[in-house]
Amino acid sequence: MRTQKSKLPAPKKPPLPGDPLPTMPEGQRKIVYAAIDEFAEHGYAATSTFAIAKRAGVSEALIFKYFKNKAMLLKQALFPVLAATLMPIAIRGMKNVAKVRHETFAAFVREFLKDRLDFARRHKKHLRILLQELPLNDELRAKAVAVLKSELFPVMRQKILEFQKTGELRAMPPETVLKLLAPQVIALVLGRTVFASEASVPDEEIAIAELIETMLCGVGQTASRTKNASRKREVNK
């Protein structure tokens, strides 16, 4: 009499690379990461659940098994995934740079910018979604601000006070310094990674050097340059 061999369960497939939620069913994970790609490329409004399903290689019905609609997919899955992957990595990287001792403020800003540029290139898709949704989503915006205030601002405040003591930075409230410098850093990082191709922007080292000079000296001529210009005018008379 032939004995029937017991059927062994199929081995579970490993989580997707960098998966922050390894316990999520594979089909659900595929949907989430396909949605990230679609939202990043086309925007939330222009993305359909059909396009997400096609990209994920699953049926559209499977999306509705896990999520009531596209809005719930965004709220229940994408925001937690982005929060789990993006914000901790972003904060950790900035804090690591800020904790290192730097001889000059310029050296600190240079390392900080290089770290942020590298981060933005690696997470371009996630940043695009966040930039699309932050102005529209009060809850997401409030969470991002709360994390920055509690985790990052104290570290950056200490760094600014450090360079104010050496005389490199003007004696003004550290919060004011952050408000003045942060938009310049954000503009350079996003301008080189999210909003433009590398071919359309200046050389990275030149761009960083120009930004640091602008931070330290402003857009007007420094006193030494003004003196040199005056001397040249006197010589040419």
Count of discrete alpha- or pi-helical segments spanning 4 or more residues: 10
Contiguous low-pLDDT stretches (5 residues minimum) are: 1-19, 229-235
* CATH topology tier name of the domain at 77-223: Tetracycline Repressor, domain 2
Radius of gyration: 25 Å
The CATH architecture of the domain at 77-223 can be given as Orthogonal Bundle
Structural class: mainly alpha
Report what the structure shows.
With 237 residues, the protein is mostly helical. The protein has a domain at 77-223: Tetracycline Repressor, domain 2 (Orthogonal Bundle). It contains ten helices and no strands. Helix 1 (26-42) packs across helix 4 (70-99). The longest helix is centred in the middle third of the chain and has 30 residues, at 70-99. The chain is elongated, with a radius of gyration of 25 Å. The relative contact order is 0.08. Residues 1-19 and 229-235 have low confidence and may be disordered.
In short:
With 237 residues, the chain is mostly helical. Helices cover 70% and strands 0% of the residues.
Fill in the keyword field for this structure.
elongated; mainly alpha; disordered C terminus; 237 residues; 10 helices; Tetracycline Repressor, domain 2
Helix and strand topology:
Blueprint: H1 26-42, H2 49-56, H3 60-66, H4 70-99, H5 105-122, H6 124-133, H7 138-165, H8 174-193, H9 204-217, H10 223-236
Helix pairs in contact: 1-2, 1-4, 1-6, 4-5, 4-7, 5-8, 5-9, 7-8, 8-9
